Amino acid sequence: MEIAKRLFRRLSSWDYSWIALLALAVLAMHLSILGVPQEPMFDEQHYVIDARAVVDGSGMLRPEHPPLAQLTIASGIWLFGDNPFGWRVFSVLFGTAGVVLLYLVCEKLGMSRQASLIASFLVAFENLSFVQASIAMLDVYSVTFMLAAFWLYLRRSYAWSGVAICLSTLCKLTGALTLPVIAIHWLVIRRDRPIHFGLSMALAPLLFFQSMPLLDYLATGHFINPVVRITRMLTLSGSITFATTPHPYLSRPWEWIVKPEIMPYWWEPQYVAAVSFTVWALIIPIALIMSHQARKGNEAAVFVMAWFTSVYLVWIPLSIITDRASYIYYFYPTVGAICIGLGWVLFRLMESGRRPIPRMPGWTATAAVWGYLALHAAILVMLSPLLGRWICLYTILSA
With contact defined as beta carbons under 8 Å apart, do 247 and 325 qualify? Predict the structure, then answer.
């Protein structure tokens, strides 16, 4: 008993105990629904087929994306079998790692431990982020490497950050948007070691071109000229437009933040691509607040706005110029930026609650924040398959 008490005291005094508990909770939630449905859903129908083709040696079937994420899904099938666990387990692990990486990013931006934990909690319990980390699609791999690149950059490991940018782009071409986020923050805030920084960022495209032939060989069994391969990826991607894609859930980038967008992935159990309302309703206010704070020199705000501009706002002119087809889940890589801004604002609100306003109890602001966080978690349970799965498990256990 005394050993258990000492262990508990040691864990409770550890700086990362709360984020570790949050990561374990997220992992447990994912594992509770990992096996449903027992057939590929939505774009899993493409990527699981690709992964099976890689495993059986017949090569990759959808060449419009880089191969790293597809190889990772194939690794799950090779290690754990051609079943829902094998398809999705690495998505879950990457998604869980992403929650921890977001916390580390917040920490390096100078945010308090409480504000960092709030931001991580918001991402962990945000529906779109949770769903994308629950299924065998490419996005979660690209986003997790993007977060790793941010963290490595903020701790001034510039060369390793360039490697992580490369890995993000090798999962999905939109991973390249990581680079301008870092470049903007460096130009505004740091401007240190310019030669080292420039060479480290140049490392990302250099490694990308060098790695593509090797990864393509692992996927298809033969080498492909990287210039030809990238040209083909861009051509195929550019051909998917609003004019040529008769999909019922197409949406323009500006629609993602001005009206709720819901895109069903699967109905029973319910998987829907939708930004949790508790986050969606505050996207524009948080962007305005962070923009104001960035002008005042707040480092976290500068980073949030660089992220929001480079990863989300860039889609608006691209959509107008190219007519490129887009969907609500394309907003997923930007959710972390909004959650960091929200974490900063909510912590400031809690801090203000410690200084009572005349005619208002000091605990009001703190209670409002806790109520908001509880609502945020409840929305995830209602939107995702969690509620139905937990009811099913309870029925089985109580029978």
Answer: yes
